[in-house]
């Protein structure tokens, strides 16, 4: 009995040591977050180890484990009908409000793209499934959650092409009429990598004259919008913060842009934006100057970090770095002028915080009406923690405010 007791104590200490992270006291429910992060971190480390051993792609095991979070079946509720559909050859889940007395009236429409680093996630993943059910019910709307292809089976621009083609097909009188969606009240939205895709699609739809029906608003939830600077204040401040740390973002970008994982150190060192790079990089970098684009309160005492010399061939290896379809923050001002009114959610304890804040400034300078919804106690992915046993107060609060903004503006 004594050896078992000692072993149990030692295992408990080891587990506590692994779980513990020094977190700021302003973050929401830190111990619950540590536990959630430990599970995710362990899964990712196993996945990267399997890749290093030549067994899977970098996120292969993580993708397998995340599939356990998928809803077991596509079940409707008394107030929302959930069905599978295809738009422009791209699969999707459709969530239709069936509120009494509202079946024949025109409804709001939301085209939604889930997060997951262009590599993980699914429309059937329980947090996204429940989120879309909730949105359809509370907005009395039709929410179309698009099942775009994922890396490594698809690479940029495949994910973008999927969501753009689906959106183009949805924004037709035929499809909107089929689902009783008001053509003047359609939004595009997404979180994290899905927020990246939503921003890119909103830009393209606004410019495409072959699409007569436009999005009324866009709603971006902690979006990833650029891969030129991994040393903005939020990247420096939150480098090791749950649920998404700085190296993990670089890994996701490399998967999306079909780069080798050995380039992670080069991305983290900002080698593509070194001072000796050419005019093309200089022009793009001018759109990510956080000392001009971030409110002073978010800059704090951080300093820009750019090496004197960089990898001259990095752009050849990763041409998507400067493509606005991958990095919407790099769009020209004339493009930004065309996008619809915008909602951007940001979280203080998120490496991607400054991407959203810089985009908000650029849109405002272009004359776009922007609402920034910032959470001082928020962390990356908090909206997905609005349900289930790991529900966070900031998750419920952020979901409620996000839906409220759509209700008021869509």
Automatic annotation (TrEMBL):
Chief localization: membrane
A family per Pfam: Abhydrolase_3
Subcellular location: Cell membrane; Microsome
Active-site annotation: 192, 350, 380
Superkingdom field: Eukaryota
Keyword Phosphoprotein in annotation: no
Keywords: Cell membrane, Endoplasmic reticulum, Glycoprotein, Hydrolase, Lipid degradation, Lipid metabolism, Membrane, Microsome, Signal-anchor, Transmembrane, Transmembrane helix
Descriptive protein name: Neutral cholesterol ester hydrolase 1
Organism from which the protein derives: Sinocyclocheilus rhinocerous
Organism lineage: Eukaryota, Metazoa, Chordata, Craniata, Vertebrata
Gene encoding the protein: nceh1b.1
